[in-house]
Every structure is written in C-alpha cells, then in structure tokens.
Amino acid sequence: MGNSSGDHEKWVCTLHAFQAKFAYDITRKYEVWRLLTATLLHNSFLHLFWNMFTILTFAFTVEKHIDSWKKYTLLLVIGSYEGNALSAIIRPYTVGVGASCTIFALLGVLIIWFWVNYYRFGENRKIFLVFLVLIAVFSLMNFLSSSNIDLWGHLGGFLAGVPLGVLLLKP
Asked: What are 144-161's pLDDT values in tens digits?
C-alpha cells in the first residue's frame, strides 16, 4: 500500500467489500453481521500481530475461568457486537476493523476476575496489578498516538465485558 490518497481509498473500499464495520450498511441495508465480521478483518499485518499477541497474553486466563466454551464464545460475540455498535453510533462515517472490541471485552472480564479473586493472590496481587496498569498505560498511549484507533470500539467492548464478567465467571 502506497502513500497516495488513491491507495488509501482503494484499501478502505477493499475493507468495506470484505464486510468491515460501516454504519450506513448496518442501519440502512440491515447488514448487522458487519458488527461481527469487522473483528475478523485487520488493516495491516502489524495490526493483526498486535491483536493476536494481546489475545494470547490474557485470553487463556479468561477462558479458563468461564464455565463453558459456549459462554466464552458468547463473551467474544457480544464484546465484538457491542464495541462495534457503539463505534458505529458515535463514528458513523468510518470503516472499522480489528479484534480490539473483543480484546477489551476480555480485559473487562479479566478485571472483574482480578477484583473477585484479589484476596487469593497474596503477594502476587501486586504483580498482576502492575500488569493491568501497564495494559491501561499502553492502551492510553495508543489512543493518544494515533487518530486511526477507534476509542469508542474499545470502550464499547470493555463496557460489554465488565457485566459479562459478573455473569459468566465461575463462582
């Protein structure tokens, strides 16, 4: 992909053709599946790499503490749906892709899991708390450093993940 405006427009059109999130298509053409298919698309190899790296960092912990694969899949689907829905409402004229909505839903569940199990960690709770603070700091740095990052999609996924953590985590 080059630096010209035409190349950028072609890339956006390609993502759109592959069912990226775009509010007009969701609301006017009733293509609600775009709220989920956008999660499977990425705008670069680096974008895909960092999403996969992040998922591998803590998704297994969340998965281990949810009762069944059905509930875990429900978490992933609702996180993607809600994050992309909030983004489509607040930023309707943007094309959105990436798994960040789902990642932030997982992060919301992880924070609830940490809060519920805080007393069990003993001395390790400080290490885990530092891990969560680092995730927050890096996320904030990401949001502030690029205009291409969809803050609303991330926030929507997180806001879906917190109550899902309360509902889906094993007691």
From this structure: 887 778 889 999 999 999
